Amino acid sequence: MSETLEAMARALFKSWFVDFDLVRAKCRGEVTSPLPALRRPSLGRVVAYFKYQSAKQLNALSGIPGTRIWQRNYYEHVIRDEESLHRIRQYILDNPMRWVFDRENPGAVTPEPENVWMA
């Protein structure tokens, strides 16, 4: 096994630093990366990772592993102008006080209609 790895390392070293295969390929206009291209994460993956990491840390700090912290989905919205930005900022400020009316709250007094804040 180690002989095979050493042979591969020698061949790779020779290809890159003796024969300059990557440089020659670049001069021919070929893709030269020997490594797979890294993909940029989608917004959904970034949000999922943030939710995962923060929930894991909060659960560790509170000593209750496995407790759900976040709701399942999120709503993404493109902010197109100052008025839209102001409405969304106000929604974020008012949101904790509106929990008693939230349709996802099982104890909601009078659930509000969906997307009421987008009007």
Structural topology:
Blueprint: H1 2-18, H2 21-27, H3 43-62, H4 82-94
Describe it.
This protein is mostly helical and 119 residues long. The chain has helices spanning 2-18, 21-27, 43-62, 82-94. The longest helix has 20 residues, at 43-62. The protein starts with a helix and ends in a 25-residue tail after the last helix. The model has no long low-confidence stretch (mean pLDDT 77).
Report the C-alpha radius of gyration, rounded. Answer: 26 Å
Secondary-structure class:
mainly alpha
- Low-confidence runs: none
Report helical residue fraction.
40-55%
Q: Indicate the proportion of strand residues.
A: under 5%
- Tally of helical segments: 4
Number of strands: 0
**Average pLDDT level:** 77
What is the helix/strand order? HHHH
Globular, elongated, flat, extended or rod-shaped: what is the shape?
elongated
Distance between the amino and carboxyl termini: 66 Å
Major β-sheet annotation: none
In short:
Helices cover 48% and strands 0% of the residues. With 119 residues, the protein is mainly α.
